[in-house]
Amino acid sequence: MSSLQIPPTGLRFENIDKRYGGLFALRRVSFEIAPGECAVLAGRNGSGKTTLLRIAGQIVRPTHGKLFFPGESLNDHRQSRPGYVGHSTMVYDELSAEENLLLFARLQEVESPAARAESLLRDVGLYERRDSLVRTFSRGMRQRIAIARALIHRPSVLLLDEPATGLDPLGISWLAQTLRELNCAGCTIVMSLHGESEISALATRAVRLDAGSVVADTKAGASLHQILTFGAA
Amino acid sequence: MSLLSNTAVLLGKELRTEFRSRELLTTTVVFILVVLILFSFAISPTSEESREFGPGLLWLAILFAASLMLQPCFLREQHNDTLSSLRLAVGDPFSIFLAKLSANTLFLLVTEILMLPLFAIFYNVPILPELHYLLLVLFLGSLGISIAGTALSAISAQARMRELLLPLLLLPLLTPILVVSATVSVSLLDRQPIVQWKGIAFLAAFDVVFLTALWLFGEYLLEE
Fold it and tell me: Is the pLDDT of residue A233 over 50?
């Protein structure tokens, strides 16, 4: 992943609650991810991983509690806005790959949007298909353009919700390599994963959620293997 | 500056996606065309009747066409969760509304400008003498429909019975604008045309009030 100079920013959740009607999606979630860390959120379906990532991405407001970005520089406010890769691609099917990246680059006032879009398209291996509409892309290609969109503004925090979905083994290797390079460049990475994989091998930290609460954390002594394989209960 | 530049970028996106899919324009043009032709043949109005009832019919057709057009406005942002990516990307969420309501107004105006000559022919109403005032009323009325409709589209897109909810909220809210627009249009198409400035001022005030409300509270409408 080329051209990254990322000021380190962390992530701190303080007593986060999220309620949908009478249902608690998250209960009193508090933990901190240090700048430059690569953390994995593990847990069964419905444990609150996606909700927590969407709160971290400032897509959803918590019902109670606060979110902080330790190390955030006021001068780099735009850059400290997290990059978010969700379950959906979050790009327009009716626009081409290049048009999508240019749109989000311009909205985020990225310097030289055309050059940045071209560079990212090369990085994610979609440069040859830059003029094709996203709706013609395969699932793996859509995931690549989703990742490129999230990186367009050189975020210092990258949030990924099950990023390997739809990727073949080659795509998973590519994603692992991309995330490794981003992490080495100082990008804080938080991702939700199921089980151990080439991507989970990058993790320096893991937190396990169950029914909306943190039940295990490598910082509290649990092993990465136990958390990822749900053996920590 | 960020608000205006973001709005311009998003408006460009709205136009590009629409001219690629032609989903909204085709629907509204066909709908208004069918309504105008159908009523013209069903009623066969005299010139006097046309002057009296024609504008009301025209505005009713515009309203229903607009409700068809406004339905997918925010709904299609949910397909790939693009609304979330837009909210992450823009500094001020009002730019999302501003771009959408500008696009909706533009699409409505294009439809109306295409339909006006047909309305004049089918209903035998001369529109040229007061065309500039008529265009002003069409602009203010369409803007009002788009502002309120875009806001309600954002609300209804997140609801369960969204297809039902939008017209249910939209029609009562737009009744004043519809009544005033039709009344002013009737006066303009009269044999001795009168410009009802009070009506035009009401339309402008409606637009300003709803635009201000959208600016103040729009952010909450986009929340999950």
Answer: no
**Chain B, nearest residue to A96 by Cα:** B17
Q: Where are the domains of chain A?
A: 1-82+156-233, 92-154
Residue of A nearest to B85 (CA): A90
CATH top class, domain A1-82+156-233: alpha beta
CA distance A78 to chain B (A): 9
Number of H helices, E strands in chain B: 8, 0
Q: For chain A, positions 25-54, list CB contacts with chain B under 8 A.
A: 54
**Element housing A66 (H / E):** strand A64-68
Reduced to 3 states (helix: H, G, I; strand: E, B; else coil), residue A204 is: coil
Q: How large is the angle between the packed helices B47-75 and B162-188, nearest 10 degrees?
A: 150
Window 194-233 of A, Cβ < 8 Å to B: none
pLDDT tens for residues B139-176?
Answer: 999 999 999 999 999 988 877 777 788 888 888 999 99
